[in-house]
Amino acid sequence: MIARLALALGLSLLFSWGMAPFVLAEFAGNLIIAGNGPELTTIEPLARAFEKANPRAYLDVVWDGNSRPVEMVKSGQAHIAVTGTAAQDLAATPIAWDGIGILVHLSNLTKELTKQQAADIFSGKITLWSELGGLDTKILVIDRPRNQNVREAFESQLGITGKITNSAKVIGPDEQVIKTVVGTLPPLAAVAYLSLSQGLSVVASGVAVKLLSIDKVEPEGPTVKDGRYPLKRPVLLLSKKEPHPLADAFIQFALSQAGQQLMADTYVPINEKESDVVALQGGTYADTAIIVVHAPRPHRIHHVSPPPRLCGGTRRDGRWRRLHPLRN
User: Fold this and answer.
1) Which of 5, 46, 69, 186 could hold 34 in an S-S bridge, CB 3.0 to 4.6 Å?
2) How far apart are CA 144 and CA 131, in angstroms?
3) What is the dihedral of CA 73, 94, 263, 216, to 10 degrees?
4) Is pLDDT of 182 > 60?
5) Closest to 98 (Cα-Cα) out of 197, 202, 210
6) Final residue of a domain: which of 205, 225, 245?
7) How many Å separate Cα 8 from the centre of its chain?
């Protein structure tokens, strides 16, 4: 316990002195990180950077849009779940912020919404764009699968958990969501929600879509960072509360200066003062998250053999593997 507290205090001091570089001893073993959302493009390079700093560490990034990462951690099939909401019985560490953008066709005359109007659209109370000053066209609501963490955060932010209209068209991949918004023409006009980082990237690439302002605030990285943009969610790493040296080390690497620089390529980094104790208001996670650093213990490599899991993970060599529950 004394060693654990000493290490936690030491790392807290490091982060308070400007997110100091990650300078812990080299770690070894196998770590499985699971997710199903838009964070893959950031988590993958983060994992590779950690491996480079720790050549004896082997990280598998397991990503499947239909998977349930939280359940994988609880059942021992993964060590870390990447999500946007906390889960009972798991430790949650915030590593970045992401906005949630509301996407429409570029030709849509509507430029902004209030949070209440957005809630009324997605709950089915507003069904025509003319009710918002636009054309007399029907609104096609695009929803996301229930297992995607962006949906949980979006519903919670708008106060419509479990109330999204049954007439909504459910689409999983962001690419298909964007294609549907672009390809839906009058008498229908689509509206969807997605990770703001993905939405900004698509708009910047010239696709015929746009993001709507919410409560007169532009959906941008700076407005997410300063808290003015109202629709945002945390990017969380969930792990078991029991000490796990390699998982703890990866989480601290994500919070280090090097890790946060990688996160900043896509998301809004966690503020230095938030790296130790963070009050989150995004998604359904409104409690204070305490980042606990566990003292290292002897490392143990968890061997994962090919059969018989359904979801695949990227290996360091770029190939895919199947997983089964980890052995103790």
Assistant:
1) 69
2) 24
3) 130
4) yes
5) 197
6) 225
7) 25
Task: Give the count of alpha carbons within 13 A of 21, CB side only.
Answer: 5
Is-contact 241 89, C-beta < 8 A?
A: yes
Per-residue pLDDT band for 26 (boundaries 50, 70, 90) equals confident
Domain boundary (225, 257, 291) is at 225
Q: Which two tokens stand for residue 265?
A: 């390529």
* Rounded Cα distance, 140 and 165, in Å: 10
Cβ neighbours of residue 293 under 8 Å, at least 6 residues apart?
A: 4, 7, 8, 11, 248, 252
Residue 328 maps to a domain: no
3-class SS shares of the chain: helix, strand, coil, % to 5:
30, 25, 45
Cβ neighbours of residue 130 under 8 Å, at least 6 residues apart?
136, 137
Q: Is 60 exposed, middle or buried (0-12, 13-18, 19+ CB in 10 A)?
A: buried
Three-class DSSP category at 103: strand
Tokens of residue 26, six digits: 């080299």
For residues 82 and 35, the answer to whether their CB atoms sit within 8 Å is yes
Strand pairing category for 288-290 and 277-279? antiparallel
Task: State the helix-helix crossing angle for 245-255 and 40-53, rounded to 10 degrees.
Answer: 110
CB-based contacts of 171: which residues, under 8 Å, 6+ apart?
142, 143, 144, 177, 180, 192
> Is 14 contained in some domain?
yes
Radius of gyration of the chain (CA): 21
Q: What's the pLDDT tens digit per position in 212-239?
A: 999 999 999 999 999 999 999 999 999 9
Backbone angles phi, psi at 297, to 5 degrees: -130, 170
Residues 238 and 91 in one domain: yes
